[in-house]
Amino acid sequence: MNEQKSVESEPAFAKELFGDRIEVARRYVSLLARDSDTFGLLGPRELSQLWSRHVLSSALLSELVKPGQAIVDIGSGAGLPGIPMAIAAPDCKFTLVEPMERRSNWLSATIFELGLTNVEVVRARAEDLQRTDFDVATARAVAALDKLVRLLSPLIRGADGKTILALKGSKAPQEIEDASGRLELLGFGVPEILTLGLGKAPETATVVRIRLKA
Q1: Do 177 and 211 form a contact (C-beta atoms < 8 A)?
Q2: In degrees to the nearest 10, what's the CA dihedral of 213, 64, 156, 161?
Q3: pLDDT tens figures, 170-209
Q4: Cα–Cα distance between 42 and 38 in angstroms, integer?
């Protein structure tokens, strides 16, 4: 009950970002707040930033995908960034990959309850996923960039998009430097650091975008 009361109020930007899908986003926030402790999705202190730090910052990535693209979200956990992106970009197809059974079960139940027909859940580790045809691979709080590109690059090699979108923080430049040798070895181009939501969102999202060379 106390945790429920501490959930962040909906910022005005949420309606702007989700548009006519705002009710779906609200329901997702409600489910996250209700189930977070039970399923180990987010810490109790994170509920006071649920909209701004988690849902909106994740949904901002939808600006970087194109209609019809296939997106894989690795280590999806609470469905971040995959579910907010899927709500904001209903014309894309999303695959949420989560190895933990209780979290993958929660994800499956949640996308059913939200009526998201453009999302599927796969219980697996990234390295065990036998697909190479995703246009975009996303991850949030999964691993440092050096390890992340090793996990994600096989999943995008067979598609047109060949893009990784990694939600990172202030250490993004250092992570890029640390991963420079690996990026070159795997055939990636020069990484971009993008700041999304500047001047609009209550909290910006820092994204590292890297593309495999054709």
Answers
A1: no
A2: -60
A3: 899 999 999 999 999 999 999 999 999 999 999 999 999 9
A4: 10
Distance, in Å, from the CA atom of 206 to the CA atom of 214, rounded to the nearest integer, reads: 25
The DSSP-derived string for 64-100 is: G--TT-EEEEET-TTTTTHHHHHHH-TTSEEEEE---
In this structure, which CATH number among 3.30.420.40, 3.90.226.10, 3.40.1050.10, 3.40.50.150 belongs to the domain 2-211?
A: 3.40.50.150
What letter does residue 20 receive in the DSSP assignment? G
Summarised one tens digit per residue, pLDDT across range 167-179 is: 998 899 999 999 9
Would residue 56 be called left, alpha or beta, if left means φ above 0 and alpha means ψ between -120 and 50 degrees?
Answer: alpha
> Is 0.70 topped by the overall pTM?
yes
